Predict the structure.
Amino acid sequence: MQPIIELKDVWKIYEIGSVKINALQGINIKVNKGEFVSVQGPSGSGKSTALNMLGSLDIPTKGTVYLDGHDISKLTESNLATIRGKKIGFVFQQFNLINTLTAKENVMLPMIFQGVEKEERVKKAEELLKIVDLQDRMDNRPTEMSGGQQQRVAIARALANDPEVILADEPTGNLDSKTGVSVMDFLHKLNKEGKTIIMVTHDEYTAKNADRIEYLVDGEITKTVKK
Amino acid sequence: MIDEFIKLSIGTLRKRKLRSWLTMLGIFIGIAAIVSLISLGQGLKISVEEEFAKLGTDKLLIQAKGGFGPPGSDLSTNYLADDDLRVIESVLGVDEAAGLLSGSVKVEANDKVRYTYLAGMPTDKSLSLIKEFMYFKVEEGRELKDGDKHKVVLGNRIAKGDLFKPNLKIRDRIELNGESFKVVGIYEAIGSSQDDSSIFISEDAYRELLDEDDKWDIIIAKASQDPDVVADRIEKKLRKHRNVEEGKEDFEVSTTAEFLDAVTNVLGILNVFLVGIAGISLIVGGIGIMNTMYTSVLERTQEVGVMKAIGAKNRDVWAIFLIESGILGFLGGLIGVIIGVVVAKLAEFIIAQTGNSIIKAAMPWWLIVGALLFSFLVGAVSGVAPAYRASKLKPTEALRYE
């Protein structure tokens, strides 16, 4: 089976002044369709950089990134934006909703960038907010919602363009444990429905939810554990 | 898509109310200044044109020039004499011609002493030509007539303004340079403060009072043919009569069309000058918008990162920020137009209080639309650089930005 995302000998080297920092040192990760993969590592291990590569937010210094079989390592920023808008949904630790927009408008935003018609946008956003149990908060702004609710809006937003992959960056990091569990339940549910989930976390316990854990230390995959 | 971006921008601007208002302040002061100045300038131009239309384009004005002062002043050594008037009357194409005397006089009335303008008017049939030129209308009493030696007609402000409170009435007596005159008429206000502050006496009385023999300050001629051609003929004949070479004339023949051109020219230059000054304030306003937008880009770096992560292309980000600064400019312009209109109307009102009804605020549609468009442009142009910076932010770095 063709992996949905594949990192092949990916290097990312940052130059700060005359100092070179190897954030990633030739990592290989394959994520198949429908998998729930966790990338775990302590801070400074290159987790964020790996996330950027997996989420096609950035291109590698060396090596190749395949998304759905296409080499995206040499795409321009705008092409990259279009692809990730369609294929990848992001869930961030800080929720990162736009505070001036309502829940519904936040969910509609990714569809605006893909040029989806207004009627369809509204319908889809309402549908998604129902799925995450927020049908009563559609017209509330993020500042009027709890952390758990905001993260659910973020999940709905991640689903807006029906992406193949949900990329979650410490999705429970800013939530109390109970709310965290319910968010994880959501991600599991989505996974069962066929979505590929990639989660980046430093937290062992959260990582254990995944089918497979890739351990990242000093920019290298040191261990892969399958359930 | 655009409407969504506009909504997004308005949301952001509302969130930063105080800053948005302060930024717009820079724009609306500039636009208000431009709108009110152009409006008044335009109004002035329109009413000048109307006045000239009333006057008719068949009138010619002949004045002496050179010497040391303005025509008609005591310092002016050149003057038009009575035989000049006869020469003008004899020119082919001149229907009729009339002379007018003008100077200043000491007036005593109601125990107050004032200095004001004095006009010596013909009392024969040529009075009607003068009146056609100045369009005076009698409000109370009567016109000057033949044999009116110690009679005066008062300009409206002399009778009813605050120069000689209480108001002067028909049959009141006033003293001009120490001689007693009786008020026989009062003119309607015509909107020019000089004319409304003038005192009118007969030509004979003027000559006697100010000891002028055969001098005329202004000669008005009415042309029955093309006024430009008639003006040339008058010039030629007067040159010969006064024995001066071409190009060294000590007199001046002007047509009303020339006047209109000259006045319109001056108004045009004045307009450009004033609008230029107002334009400077708009540039400052634009810099204000640029500053605000740069700050906004900095503050929203993370937001830009998020938008890019969820699929915003560089040009989407660019459009969002550009629309935002455009809205700042446009809203600033909208408020500026409203304030400008109010200021222009207020200025019209205040000027009217001083007795000049000539300035009316004009609000042509192109002024309003142009001002709005221009303010939007100022906003958008000021936003180009900050929006470009926002659009070039790397999503990875922007997301991490705190």
User: Anything to note?
Assistant: The radius of gyration of chain A is 17 Å. Chain A has a mean pLDDT of 90. Chain A touches chain B through 32 residues (CB under 8 Å). Helices of chain A lie at 47-54, 77-87, 103-113, 118-131, 147-158, 177-192, 204-207.
